[in-house]
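Justification of resources, computational component.

The compute hours requested in this renewal are based largely on the per-chain cost of generating structure records like the one below. Each record pairs the submitted sequence with a full structure-token output. That output is archived, and it is also reused by downstream analysis tasks.
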Amino acid sequence: SRLFRISEPVQYNSYGFSDGAWMRDARGHGSVIYLTNGHYGSNLLEYRDMDSFKSGQASNSYKLPYSFTGTGHVVFNGAFYYNRAFSRDIIRYDLRHRYVGAWTTLHDVEFAVDESGLWLLYPALDTEGFHQEVILLIQLRPRDLQPIRSFRTGLRRGRYGNTFLVCGVLYAVDSMDRRFANVTYAFDTHTFTHTMPSLAFTNLHSHTSQVSYCPLDKKLYAWDNGHQMMYDVVFAY
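The structure output for this chain reads:
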């Protein structure tokens, strides 16, 4: 399914620093919401449902054994996947048993989840001699973080705002801080093709540090300058 349109964002809360991330467990049940506040920290907050989140009533707090950095983490099948701060490691942290279940050495990645599983975006030096970093899209085995398959996209590092993955298609927004932005790039893992869509994308508060697709409710979750936003997506077919 290809995206046809992205709705205007709806604000669900106003909380925290300008950077952060909020999400659901893409393989979970129920309506639990997870949140990290800031670009760096060691706490993952859990809210029982949207009402608890809106009223600021956290039901659980996880003190991570290693601090996170960035906003490109996900919760998938009961585990929190994130970049470990001040290191070149990515970590799988088991939420139920509260321990590190797996880690591997990869630097500066962003995780993504879609209908087919767990992915990461990884900047790698272009082998064609341009000395620029291109973005690789890698599907991971969630249990041990081993790569299943890898795709070389046409995205260059630092040339776009946010990315998100929907139904095996990677989309890139051209700006994270321009209010009226556009999705201007798509890479389809089914056909190995690039397209240049032009889908309007609104950064309402002009500083979107996270955009994540949730296959449970088919919505985009975004953190925009301390505001937690949600977008509906409309499919072409």
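The chain has a mean pLDDT of 94. The first strand starts at residue 3 and ends at 6.
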